[in-house]
Fold this protein.
Amino acid sequence: MGLLLFDLVLATVVLLLAGTAIFSRNLTHAVMLFMAFGVMMALAWARLAAPDLALAEAAIGAGLTGALCFTALVRQPAALDSKVATSLLPICFVALITAALLFSVWQIPVSPNPALSHEVSVALPQSGVAHPVTAVLLNFRSWDTLLELLVLLLALLGAQQAQSSLTLYAGWSLSLSWSRLLSPLIILLTGYLLWRGAAAPGGAFQAGALLASGLVVLRLNQQLTWLSWQNPWVRLAALSGLLVFVLTGLFSLLWSSSRLWLEWPTAYAGAVILGIESFATLAIAVTLTLLVVGEPTEERADA
Amino acid sequence: MLSLYVYFTLATLLIGFGAYGVWRGPELLRRILALNIMGAGIFLLMVTLAYRPVLQGEPADSVLHALVLTGLVVAVSATAFALALLGRILQKGKA
Protein backbone atom coordinates (compact mmCIF):
# COMPACT_ATOMS: atom_id res chain seq x y z
CA MET A 1 0.00 0.00 0.00
CA GLY A 2 2.78 2.40 0.97
CA LEU A 3 4.69 1.56 -2.17
CA LEU A 4 1.60 2.18 -4.31
CA LEU A 5 1.22 5.59 -2.70
CA PHE A 6 4.87 6.35 -3.54
CA ASP A 7 4.29 5.25 -7.13
CA LEU A 8 1.24 7.49 -7.48
CA VAL A 9 3.07 10.51 -6.03
CA LEU A 10 6.12 9.89 -8.24
CA ALA A 11 3.96 9.47 -11.34
CA THR A 12 2.10 12.70 -10.58
CA VAL A 13 5.35 14.63 -10.05
CA VAL A 14 6.92 13.27 -13.24
CA LEU A 15 3.82 14.07 -15.29
CA LEU A 16 3.57 17.57 -13.82
CA LEU A 17 7.26 18.28 -14.56
CA ALA A 18 6.98 16.96 -18.12
CA GLY A 19 3.76 18.88 -18.74
CA THR A 20 5.06 22.17 -17.37
CA ALA A 21 8.33 21.76 -19.30
CA ILE A 22 6.31 21.51 -22.50
CA PHE A 23 3.64 24.14 -21.76
CA SER A 24 5.65 26.72 -19.79
CA ARG A 25 5.78 30.07 -21.61
CA ASN A 26 9.33 30.83 -20.55
CA LEU A 27 12.03 28.72 -22.18
CA THR A 28 14.43 29.08 -19.23
CA HIS A 29 11.78 27.67 -16.90
CA ALA A 30 11.20 24.82 -19.36
CA VAL A 31 14.89 23.85 -19.28
CA MET A 32 15.02 23.93 -15.46
CA LEU A 33 11.85 21.85 -15.17
CA PHE A 34 13.32 19.39 -17.66
CA MET A 35 16.42 18.97 -15.45
CA ALA A 36 14.18 18.26 -12.43
CA PHE A 37 12.35 15.76 -14.65
CA GLY A 38 15.68 13.95 -15.20
CA VAL A 39 16.26 13.63 -11.43
CA MET A 40 12.75 12.24 -10.93
CA MET A 41 13.29 9.73 -13.74
CA ALA A 42 16.43 8.52 -11.91
CA LEU A 43 14.20 7.94 -8.86
CA ALA A 44 11.75 5.99 -11.02
CA TRP A 45 14.56 3.73 -12.35
CA ALA A 46 15.67 3.06 -8.77
CA ARG A 47 12.08 2.17 -7.84
CA LEU A 48 11.75 -0.21 -10.79
CA ALA A 49 14.77 -2.30 -9.67
CA ALA A 50 17.11 -0.80 -12.29
CA PRO A 51 20.00 0.67 -10.24
CA ASP A 52 22.31 0.69 -13.29
CA LEU A 53 19.94 3.02 -15.09
CA ALA A 54 19.42 5.17 -12.01
CA LEU A 55 23.19 5.76 -11.75
CA ALA A 56 23.51 6.57 -15.45
CA GLU A 57 20.44 8.82 -15.49
CA ALA A 58 21.57 10.76 -12.42
CA ALA A 59 24.85 11.63 -14.17
CA ILE A 60 23.50 12.03 -17.72
CA GLY A 61 19.88 13.16 -17.41
CA ALA A 62 20.30 15.52 -14.52
CA GLY A 63 23.91 16.62 -15.04
CA LEU A 64 25.11 16.57 -18.62
CA THR A 65 21.80 17.21 -20.42
CA GLY A 66 21.21 20.17 -18.11
CA ALA A 67 24.61 21.63 -18.97
CA LEU A 68 23.94 21.03 -22.67
CA CYS A 69 20.55 22.73 -22.57
CA PHE A 70 21.88 25.74 -20.66
CA THR A 71 24.63 26.13 -23.26
CA ALA A 72 21.92 26.12 -25.93
CA LEU A 73 19.85 28.57 -23.90
CA VAL A 74 22.68 31.13 -23.88
CA ARG A 75 22.51 31.25 -27.68
CA GLN A 76 18.74 31.78 -27.79
CA PRO A 77 17.45 35.22 -28.81
CA ALA A 78 16.40 37.41 -25.90
CA ALA A 79 12.59 37.40 -26.36
CA LEU A 80 11.72 34.28 -24.42
CA ASP A 81 8.02 34.68 -23.60
CA SER A 82 6.07 32.89 -26.25
CA LYS A 83 2.35 32.58 -26.89
CA VAL A 84 1.00 29.75 -28.96
CA ALA A 85 -2.52 29.58 -30.27
CA THR A 86 -3.80 26.17 -29.20
CA SER A 87 -5.45 24.43 -32.07
CA LEU A 88 -7.75 21.49 -31.52
CA LEU A 89 -6.54 19.21 -34.29
CA PRO A 90 -3.10 18.22 -32.88
CA ILE A 91 -4.54 17.73 -29.38
CA CYS A 92 -7.26 15.40 -30.68
CA PHE A 93 -4.81 13.48 -32.85
CA VAL A 94 -2.25 12.96 -30.07
CA ALA A 95 -4.98 12.09 -27.54
CA LEU A 96 -6.38 9.47 -29.91
CA ILE A 97 -2.94 7.90 -30.48
CA THR A 98 -2.19 7.94 -26.74
CA ALA A 99 -5.53 6.30 -25.91
CA ALA A 100 -4.91 3.56 -28.46
CA LEU A 101 -1.39 3.05 -27.08
CA LEU A 102 -2.72 2.93 -23.50
CA PHE A 103 -5.31 0.35 -24.50
CA SER A 104 -2.72 -1.88 -26.16
CA VAL A 105 -0.15 -1.49 -23.36
CA TRP A 106 -2.72 -2.64 -20.81
CA GLN A 107 -3.19 -5.87 -22.77
CA ILE A 108 0.43 -6.89 -22.07
CA PRO A 109 0.39 -10.01 -19.84
CA VAL A 110 1.67 -9.44 -16.32
CA SER A 111 3.62 -12.72 -16.22
CA PRO A 112 6.54 -12.44 -18.65
CA ASN A 113 8.06 -15.07 -20.89
CA PRO A 114 11.21 -15.99 -18.92
CA ALA A 115 13.13 -17.64 -21.79
CA LEU A 116 15.67 -14.89 -22.45
CA SER A 117 16.50 -13.98 -18.84
CA HIS A 118 16.74 -17.70 -18.09
CA GLU A 119 19.39 -18.07 -20.79
CA VAL A 120 21.30 -15.11 -19.36
CA SER A 121 21.38 -16.66 -15.90
CA VAL A 122 22.48 -20.02 -17.33
CA ALA A 123 25.35 -18.48 -19.33
CA LEU A 124 26.40 -16.03 -16.59
CA PRO A 125 29.19 -18.24 -15.11
CA GLN A 126 30.94 -18.35 -18.52
CA SER A 127 30.76 -14.58 -19.05
CA GLY A 128 33.64 -13.61 -16.73
CA VAL A 129 31.55 -11.18 -14.64
CA ALA A 130 28.91 -11.74 -11.97
CA HIS A 131 26.55 -8.85 -12.76
CA PRO A 132 24.03 -9.80 -15.47
CA VAL A 133 23.68 -6.30 -16.99
CA THR A 134 27.46 -6.00 -17.48
CA ALA A 135 27.54 -9.53 -18.90
CA VAL A 136 24.84 -8.67 -21.44
CA LEU A 137 26.49 -5.37 -22.38
CA LEU A 138 30.06 -6.59 -22.83
CA ASN A 139 29.76 -10.28 -23.57
CA PHE A 140 26.41 -11.53 -24.84
CA ARG A 141 25.44 -8.44 -26.80
CA SER A 142 28.79 -6.71 -27.24
CA TRP A 143 27.84 -5.65 -30.79
CA ASP A 144 25.39 -3.18 -29.21
CA THR A 145 28.10 -1.64 -27.08
CA LEU A 146 30.58 -1.48 -29.95
CA LEU A 147 28.07 0.29 -32.19
CA GLU A 148 27.08 2.58 -29.34
CA LEU A 149 30.66 3.78 -29.00
CA LEU A 150 30.60 4.38 -32.77
CA VAL A 151 27.39 6.43 -32.45
CA LEU A 152 29.01 8.54 -29.72
CA LEU A 153 32.01 9.17 -31.95
CA LEU A 154 29.78 10.08 -34.92
CA ALA A 155 27.81 12.51 -32.76
CA LEU A 156 31.07 14.13 -31.69
CA LEU A 157 32.30 14.43 -35.29
CA GLY A 158 28.96 15.89 -36.36
CA ALA A 159 28.95 18.39 -33.51
CA GLN A 160 32.50 19.41 -34.41
CA GLN A 161 31.33 20.21 -37.95
CA ALA A 162 28.43 22.34 -36.71
CA GLN A 163 30.49 24.11 -34.07
CA SER A 164 29.40 27.56 -33.02
CA SER A 165 31.51 29.65 -30.72
CA LEU A 166 30.81 29.75 -27.00
CA THR A 167 32.49 32.20 -24.67
CA LEU A 168 33.82 30.84 -21.37
CA TYR A 169 33.94 33.31 -18.55
CA ALA A 170 36.63 33.21 -15.90
CA GLY A 171 35.27 31.16 -13.01
CA TRP A 172 33.76 32.52 -9.87
CA SER A 173 36.44 31.80 -7.25
CA LEU A 174 34.12 29.75 -5.02
CA SER A 175 33.02 27.45 -7.85
CA LEU A 176 36.65 27.16 -8.94
CA SER A 177 37.86 25.96 -5.53
CA TRP A 178 34.85 23.66 -5.12
CA SER A 179 35.45 22.04 -8.49
CA ARG A 180 39.10 21.48 -7.54
CA LEU A 181 38.04 19.92 -4.23
CA LEU A 182 35.52 17.67 -5.93
CA SER A 183 37.76 16.39 -8.73
CA PRO A 184 39.77 13.79 -6.71
CA LEU A 185 36.50 12.50 -5.26
CA ILE A 186 35.01 12.13 -8.73
CA ILE A 187 38.06 10.23 -10.00
CA LEU A 188 37.84 7.92 -6.97
CA LEU A 189 34.12 7.31 -7.53
CA THR A 190 34.71 6.66 -11.23
CA GLY A 191 37.27 4.00 -10.44
CA TYR A 192 34.94 2.45 -7.88
CA LEU A 193 31.98 2.33 -10.28
CA LEU A 194 34.15 0.81 -12.99
CA TRP A 195 35.54 -1.88 -10.72
CA ARG A 196 32.21 -2.65 -9.05
CA GLY A 197 30.55 -3.13 -12.46
CA ALA A 198 31.85 -6.72 -12.59
CA ALA A 199 29.76 -7.83 -9.62
CA ALA A 200 27.17 -5.14 -8.85
CA PRO A 201 25.39 -2.19 -10.51
CA GLY A 202 27.98 0.04 -12.16
CA GLY A 203 30.24 -0.19 -15.18
CA ALA A 204 31.70 1.74 -18.08
CA PHE A 205 28.72 3.96 -18.91
CA GLN A 206 27.99 5.12 -15.40
CA ALA A 207 31.69 5.66 -14.67
CA GLY A 208 32.20 7.49 -17.98
CA ALA A 209 29.21 9.76 -17.45
CA LEU A 210 30.34 10.60 -13.92
CA LEU A 211 33.90 11.37 -15.05
CA ALA A 212 32.49 13.50 -17.87
CA SER A 213 30.41 15.58 -15.47
CA GLY A 214 33.52 16.21 -13.36
CA LEU A 215 35.53 17.19 -16.44
CA VAL A 216 32.74 19.51 -17.63
CA VAL A 217 32.65 21.34 -14.31
CA LEU A 218 36.44 21.80 -14.37
CA ARG A 219 36.41 22.82 -18.03
CA LEU A 220 33.68 25.41 -17.48
CA ASN A 221 35.86 26.90 -14.76
CA GLN A 222 38.67 27.31 -17.32
CA GLN A 223 40.73 24.45 -15.93
CA LEU A 224 42.22 21.66 -18.09
CA THR A 225 42.90 23.92 -21.07
CA TRP A 226 44.57 21.02 -22.90
CA LEU A 227 41.20 19.29 -23.19
CA SER A 228 40.21 20.30 -26.72
CA TRP A 229 39.79 18.63 -30.09
CA GLN A 230 43.01 20.33 -31.32
CA ASN A 231 45.06 18.13 -28.98
CA PRO A 232 46.03 14.84 -30.72
CA TRP A 233 46.14 12.96 -27.40
CA VAL A 234 42.56 13.97 -26.66
CA ARG A 235 41.54 12.69 -30.11
CA LEU A 236 43.30 9.42 -29.33
CA ALA A 237 41.46 9.18 -25.99
CA ALA A 238 38.10 9.78 -27.70
CA LEU A 239 38.94 7.02 -30.20
CA SER A 240 40.48 4.62 -27.69
CA GLY A 241 37.26 2.87 -26.61
CA LEU A 242 36.30 1.90 -30.15
CA LEU A 243 39.90 1.07 -31.09
CA VAL A 244 40.51 -1.27 -28.16
CA PHE A 245 37.12 -2.90 -28.67
CA VAL A 246 37.74 -3.62 -32.36
CA LEU A 247 41.32 -4.82 -31.76
CA THR A 248 40.14 -7.18 -29.02
CA GLY A 249 37.43 -8.45 -31.35
CA LEU A 250 40.03 -9.12 -34.05
CA PHE A 251 42.26 -10.95 -31.56
CA SER A 252 39.34 -13.12 -30.52
CA LEU A 253 38.60 -13.83 -34.18
CA LEU A 254 42.17 -14.87 -35.00
CA TRP A 255 43.41 -16.61 -31.88
CA SER A 256 40.51 -18.11 -30.00
CA SER A 257 39.48 -21.70 -30.71
CA SER A 258 35.88 -20.83 -31.57
CA ARG A 259 36.89 -18.29 -34.26
CA LEU A 260 33.95 -16.05 -33.47
CA TRP A 261 33.93 -12.26 -33.69
CA LEU A 262 33.60 -10.68 -30.20
CA GLU A 263 33.59 -14.02 -28.39
CA TRP A 264 35.83 -13.92 -25.31
CA PRO A 265 37.50 -17.16 -24.07
CA THR A 266 36.00 -18.01 -20.68
CA ALA A 267 39.33 -18.09 -18.84
CA TYR A 268 40.26 -14.49 -19.80
CA ALA A 269 36.77 -13.01 -20.15
CA GLY A 270 36.91 -11.06 -16.87
CA ALA A 271 40.22 -9.38 -17.74
CA VAL A 272 39.16 -8.67 -21.34
CA ILE A 273 35.92 -7.06 -20.18
CA LEU A 274 37.72 -4.93 -17.59
CA GLY A 275 40.25 -3.78 -20.21
CA ILE A 276 37.57 -2.81 -22.72
CA GLU A 277 35.52 -1.11 -20.02
CA SER A 278 38.49 0.99 -18.82
CA PHE A 279 39.13 2.40 -22.29
CA ALA A 280 35.41 2.76 -22.96
CA THR A 281 35.10 4.82 -19.76
CA LEU A 282 37.91 7.12 -20.90
CA ALA A 283 36.41 7.45 -24.39
CA ILE A 284 32.86 8.09 -23.13
CA ALA A 285 34.09 10.68 -20.62
CA VAL A 286 36.21 12.60 -23.16
CA THR A 287 33.54 12.42 -25.89
CA LEU A 288 30.71 13.61 -23.64
CA THR A 289 32.89 16.43 -22.27
CA LEU A 290 33.78 17.63 -25.78
CA LEU A 291 30.11 17.37 -26.79
CA VAL A 292 29.02 19.56 -23.88
CA VAL A 293 31.85 22.11 -23.84
CA GLY A 294 32.99 22.12 -27.46
CA GLU A 295 35.80 24.51 -28.38
CA PRO A 296 35.20 27.57 -26.27
CA THR A 297 36.95 30.88 -26.73
CA GLU A 298 38.36 31.90 -23.39
CA GLU A 299 37.86 35.26 -21.79
CA ARG A 300 39.79 36.36 -18.75
CA ALA A 301 38.15 39.71 -18.13
CA ASP A 302 34.98 38.65 -16.32
CA ALA A 303 35.33 37.82 -12.64
CA MET B 1 0.57 -5.43 -9.36
CA LEU B 2 -1.30 -2.11 -9.43
CA SER B 3 2.04 -0.27 -9.49
CA LEU B 4 2.75 -1.94 -12.81
CA TYR B 5 -0.32 -0.30 -14.33
CA VAL B 6 0.62 3.06 -12.77
CA TYR B 7 3.97 2.93 -14.57
CA PHE B 8 2.46 1.64 -17.83
CA THR B 9 0.05 4.57 -17.78
CA LEU B 10 2.80 7.03 -16.87
CA ALA B 11 4.99 5.80 -19.75
CA THR B 12 2.15 6.12 -22.26
CA LEU B 13 1.20 9.59 -21.06
CA LEU B 14 4.85 10.71 -21.28
CA ILE B 15 4.99 9.49 -24.87
CA GLY B 16 1.76 11.40 -25.59
CA PHE B 17 2.96 14.62 -23.89
CA GLY B 18 6.27 14.42 -25.72
CA ALA B 19 4.57 13.89 -29.07
CA TYR B 20 2.33 16.89 -28.50
CA GLY B 21 5.34 18.99 -27.41
CA VAL B 22 7.22 18.10 -30.59
CA TRP B 23 4.19 19.16 -32.60
CA ARG B 24 3.52 22.35 -30.67
CA GLY B 25 6.99 23.84 -30.24
CA PRO B 26 7.19 26.75 -30.70
CA GLU B 27 10.96 27.03 -30.17
CA LEU B 28 13.30 24.41 -31.59
CA LEU B 29 14.95 23.91 -28.19
CA ARG B 30 11.57 23.00 -26.69
CA ARG B 31 10.99 20.49 -29.46
CA ILE B 32 14.30 18.83 -28.55
CA LEU B 33 13.24 18.74 -24.88
CA ALA B 34 9.89 17.22 -25.88
CA LEU B 35 11.65 14.58 -27.95
CA ASN B 36 13.70 13.67 -24.87
CA ILE B 37 10.52 13.40 -22.78
CA MET B 38 9.07 11.07 -25.42
CA GLY B 39 12.27 8.99 -25.24
CA ALA B 40 12.01 8.84 -21.44
CA GLY B 41 8.47 7.46 -21.85
CA ILE B 42 9.70 4.72 -24.17
CA PHE B 43 12.56 3.82 -21.79
CA LEU B 44 10.06 3.75 -18.90
CA LEU B 45 7.85 1.34 -20.85
CA MET B 46 10.81 -1.00 -21.41
CA VAL B 47 11.97 -0.83 -17.79
CA THR B 48 8.43 -1.52 -16.56
CA LEU B 49 8.34 -4.59 -18.82
CA ALA B 50 11.70 -5.64 -17.30
CA TYR B 51 10.21 -5.18 -13.81
CA ARG B 52 7.53 -7.85 -14.27
CA PRO B 53 9.71 -10.81 -13.10
CA VAL B 54 10.38 -8.96 -9.80
CA LEU B 55 6.69 -9.37 -8.91
CA GLN B 56 7.21 -13.14 -9.07
CA GLY B 57 10.32 -13.02 -6.90
CA GLU B 58 12.89 -13.29 -9.71
CA PRO B 59 15.57 -10.74 -10.69
CA ALA B 60 14.61 -8.08 -13.23
CA ASP B 61 15.22 -8.71 -16.94
CA SER B 62 18.86 -7.71 -17.53
CA VAL B 63 18.65 -7.75 -21.35
CA LEU B 64 16.12 -4.91 -21.38
CA HIS B 65 18.15 -2.99 -18.79
CA ALA B 66 21.24 -3.27 -20.98
CA LEU B 67 19.27 -2.06 -24.01
CA VAL B 68 17.91 0.95 -22.12
CA LEU B 69 21.40 1.77 -20.78
CA THR B 70 22.69 1.85 -24.36
CA GLY B 71 19.65 3.93 -25.30
CA LEU B 72 20.36 6.54 -22.61
CA VAL B 73 23.87 7.19 -23.90
CA VAL B 74 22.74 7.26 -27.54
CA ALA B 75 19.91 9.66 -26.60
CA VAL B 76 22.29 12.10 -24.91
CA SER B 77 24.71 12.03 -27.86
CA ALA B 78 21.85 12.62 -30.32
CA THR B 79 20.62 15.50 -28.15
CA ALA B 80 24.10 17.01 -28.11
CA PHE B 81 24.30 16.80 -31.90
CA ALA B 82 20.83 18.33 -32.27
CA LEU B 83 21.79 21.18 -29.94
CA ALA B 84 25.01 21.81 -31.90
CA LEU B 85 22.92 22.09 -35.08
CA LEU B 86 20.50 24.38 -33.25
CA GLY B 87 23.37 26.64 -32.16
CA ARG B 88 24.53 26.84 -35.76
CA ILE B 89 21.03 27.74 -36.99
CA LEU B 90 20.69 30.51 -34.41
CA GLN B 91 24.14 31.89 -35.24
CA LYS B 92 23.24 31.99 -38.93
CA GLY B 93 19.95 33.73 -38.14
CA LYS B 94 21.83 36.50 -36.32
CA ALA B 95 24.47 37.04 -38.99
In short: Chain B has one domain: 2-94. The domain at 2-94 of chain B is CATH 1.10.287 (Helix Hairpins). Chain B is about 90% helix and 0% strand. The CA atoms of residues 78 and 84 of chain B lie 10 Å apart.
